[in-house]
Amino acid sequence: MATVSYRDASRIYPGSDRAAVNKLNLEIEDGEFMVLVGPSGCGKSTSLRMLAGLEEVNAGNIFIGDRDVTDLPPKDRDIAMVFQNYALYPHMTVADNMGFALKMQNVPKAERQKRVQEAAHLLGLEDFLSRKPKALSGGQRQRVAMGRAIVRQPQVFLMDEPLSNLDAKLRVSTRTQIAALQRRLGVTTVYVTHDQVEAMTMGDRVAVLKDGILQQVDSPLALYDTPNNLFVAGFIGSPAMNLMIGKVTEGGATIGDYTVPVPRETLAKADGDETVTLGIRPETFKISSTGQGIALDIAVVEELGADSYLYGTLAGLSEDELVNAPQIVARVGARTAPQKGEVVRLEIDPEHVHVFNNTTEDRIS
Amino acid sequence: MPRFLAAKPDADLIRLPWNVPLESWPTAHLVALPRGISRHVVRFIQVGDDILAAKEILEEVAVHEYRQLTELRRLDVPAVEPVGVVLGRNDSEGNVLDPILLTRHLPFSLPYRALFYSGVKLDTVNRLLDAMVVLFARLHLTGFYWGDVSLSNILFRRDAGEFAAYLVDAETGELHAKLTDGQRAHDLQIATTNLFGEFSDLEAGGMLDPSLQPQWLVETIVDRYHSLWAELTGVEEFSESELYRLEGRVRRLNALGFDVAEIDVSTSADGSTIRMQPKVVEAGHHSRRLMRLTGLDAEEHQARRLLNDMDTFRAKIPGTMTESVAAHKWLMEVFEPATSRIPPDLAGKRDPAQFFHELLDYRWYMSQRENHEVSIVEAASGYVADVLRTLPDEEMSNVMPVGQELLNKYDPSQGFADDEEEPPYDPWEDGANDPELPVSFGFDIEALRARERAKSRERDPG
Q1: How far apart are CA A106 and CA B215, in angstroms?
Q2: How far is residue A61's CA from residue B193's CA, in Å, rounded to a whole number?
Q3: How much is the average pLDDT of A46-59?
Q4: Which residues of A touch B152 (CB under 8 A)?
Q5: Helical axes B352-370 vs B300-316, angle rounded to 10°
Q6: How far is A44 from A193, CA to CA, in rounded Å?
Q7: Which helix (H) or strand (E) holds A44?
């Protein structure tokens, strides 16, 4: 068991003038499930590989526990990359498929059997131990692969997009299994994914990266409820948060013909800009009962169970303005859902409006 | 309608049953050739006169691998030839099927399952291990991190008395400008684990010669990799009186089949110590020279053998003749008359360069026996009649490894066809197989809030 700390850790590829990972500072607690997430090229995989010893650390340090591993070769770091290789050997039993790497390291047979037995118990594979893997399902194969990492008893598990080549259904169930298993094992885990849904459902905390820079690290709920900046606001959430530019006026920000109330002290942080960006999650919109609110011209109504998603644009725009008009999404109860083509007014509880400075892109509400 | 991503699309491809999952393709299209194990569905398929390997994988991975293989070929690294990716597949009910990556079956290739069989000579094993190590070092020199080195991802081809190894699978590969020591070390660590697993699997299936120990095989590979890497890239220091060591190093590298394109030499301040390190080393020293002189494409050791014969031929010509003129004369008077003796029906036994290498050995013994120098054409006729005719066909090797019958002859990953009772009940599978389980692509914030509330209640029951 161990903590992991990145301290001002940077990676600059030769010939590049921009750091792939720029002064990363991240403290991962003992036993924590930390997810690194961000779009392609954000530095999440590079950060993981720096921890694994696959990428040089050009500046700063990385610690596992109180050990500085910055310059240690991968094999001396006591980490296990999970799912790197999950080819199962057809002529070996499931037990041997899980324990063969220990055999290579000359771990005594009794110890090997004990560790395999324990891992099999955790993974619900005890009844399969003496069988050949040919009849195993995709999910069972994944569990055997996970068993391979567990029997090594590493201090930290590293997982780089482990679910990326599973089909959608298997991905959802394996996701739940990995998260549950990690909690039972209590081994510190660093998990990389580009999929924010995966990040939000699995991680104890989630670190959001962009262009090599850590944007925010927080619990999934905190990321959702109080995103630090425009990038995090737009990246986390599905469907994404509505980000609309509002003109700063007395007492609020005006969108179309409606002024969303924003406290004066928040507006003061706009640094004198004429506009701010308002962020509103689709589910915080309500269809107005008072005739006040943002006017939405509905283009599509999508029904999903008890909810309806309304997709459209701000009503009353000119043809030219429509070309670049951002899509607005609102989630409303299916029973109250209006029809495609209608114009509705959407009201918002001012408490749920996120306000961002348009110059710094930082949160000011 | 499927889409084809390919440099040279082949009309015959369009007619194949792309709307059927590869696993269920009619056997009329399939060819049972020996190969390694894989985690995806892989089949050899017949397309016109070609045999292609087809692998069903996710789109992102398929396109990545196609591009990696294309790039590796461009960099002149021995790798299988990518043919294309079939995208946008749907079955007859409209369900989406994963894309298929197509690569050309490497002619005259021998997969490991046909090589480490019971009764194999230690000498042969040593050569196979060497070929693997050379491939591995070449990839690392090029800046290629493989990420999944394994026997199943390597094919072997005969190379004079040695073997040449080819990369088959670049799914996890990454091309960097230069690999860090950490990347190489990790690649090697993955290699040792995978190779140990595969050798152990052969052992468990009764397909590994009992004299071979997985542990020994893996340690040998690692040791040889380290010594080859040191020879290729290591720093050497010597005094100024030992300048010959500079040339010695280059000769040793040439003998290993590598050209030195750039060497870094520096002298200490007082001039007494010289430090040198090869900077740019390229494989294919002999095969490039053979290609330049004759246009023949051969493996490295084959090329060396052919070049030796060409050099001897030139030495016997009275007067002086430039190398390129002599090479042309050798090609017209020696190589082509000899290889044209191979009857078309035996062309699948050996490729021309390998045939010529074996023919040179045969001629040597024949000349010894007959006490005079036998002409190459005469020897070629003898070799075809005495030896070639009796050899197994290797252009498309279908020598199956010893052992029990495979459960599915098109898929060795499924193991032997031995009887096994019904699989035990697995409660973990209930979730995954539950048809009612919604596949949610979106993100359920309410579920997350509920989970957090439950957690905080747990922490603070009051």
Answers
A1: 10
A2: 29
A3: 92
A4: 87
A5: 50
A6: 8
A7: helix A44-52
Q: Has residue A125 got a pLDDT over 70?
A: yes
**pLDDT value at B394 more than 60:** yes
Q: Does B185 contact A75 at a Cβ distance shorter than 8 Å?
A: yes
Which tokens belong to B49? 């006169």
Domains detected in chain A:
4-234 (3.40.50.300), 239-357 (2.40.50.140)
Chain B contact set for A86 (CB, 8 A): 39
CB atoms within 10 A of CB B382: 17
Averaged confidence pLDDT in chain A = 91
Considering only the beta carbons, identify the residue of B189, B194, B429 that sits closest to A137.
Answer: B429
**Are domains B3-105 and B110-283 of this chain identical in fold?**
no
A134-179 pLDDT per residue, tens: 878 877 888 898 899 899 999 999 998 888 767 777 778 788 888 8
Q: Does domain B3-105 have CATH number 3.30.310?
A: no
What is the value of ipTM here, to two decimals? 0.79
**pLDDT confidence bin for B420, thresholds 50/70/90:** low
Question: Hey, is the C-beta of B205 within 8 angstroms of any chain A C-beta?
Answer: yes
pLDDT beyond 60 at B103: yes
pLDDT single digits (tens) B1-16: 788 988 887 888 888 9
Which CATH superfamily, name and number, covers B110-283?
Answer: Transferase(Phosphotransferase) domain 1 (1.10.510.10)
- Asked if A190 contacts A52 with a C-beta cutoff of 8 angstroms, the reply is no
C-beta atoms of B198 and A127 within 8 A: no
Q: How far is B240 from chain A (nearest CA, A)?
A: 34
pLDDT at position A84 over 70? no
CA angle A125, A201, B61 (to 5 degrees): 75
Question: Per-residue pLDDT for A92 more than 80?
Answer: yes
The residues, ordered by sequence, that sit 6+ positions from A238 with a Cβ below 8 Å of its Cβ are A196, A197, B441, B442, B443
How many residue pairs bridge chain A and chain B with CB atoms within 8 Å of each other? 166
- Do A202 and A288 form a contact (C-beta atoms < 8 A)? no
- Is the Cβ pair B428, A177 closer than 8 Å? yes
**Domain extents in chain B:** 3-105, 110-283, 299-390, 427-459
Percent of chain A at pLDDT above 70? 98
Cα A22 from Cα A213, distance rounded (Å): 5
Q: How much is the average pLDDT of B314-320?
A: 88
Whether the CB-CB separation of B25 and B15 falls below 8 Å is answered with no
